[in-house]
Amino acid sequence: MRLIQLSRDSIAFPSPEGALREPNGLLALGGDLSPARLLMAYQRGIFPWFSPGDPILWWSPDPRAVLYPEQFHLSRSMKRFHSRSPYRVTLNHAFQDVIAGCAQERDEGTWITPDIIDAYQRLHELGYAHSIEVWEDQSLVGGMYGVIQGALFCGESMFSRRVNASKTALLMFCRHFAHHGGRLIDCQVLNSHTASLGAKEIPRRDYLRHLADFRTENLISHCWVPQTLSYS
Question: Strand ranges (DSSP E) for 112-163?
Answer without folding.
Answer: 129-136, 139-149, 152-160
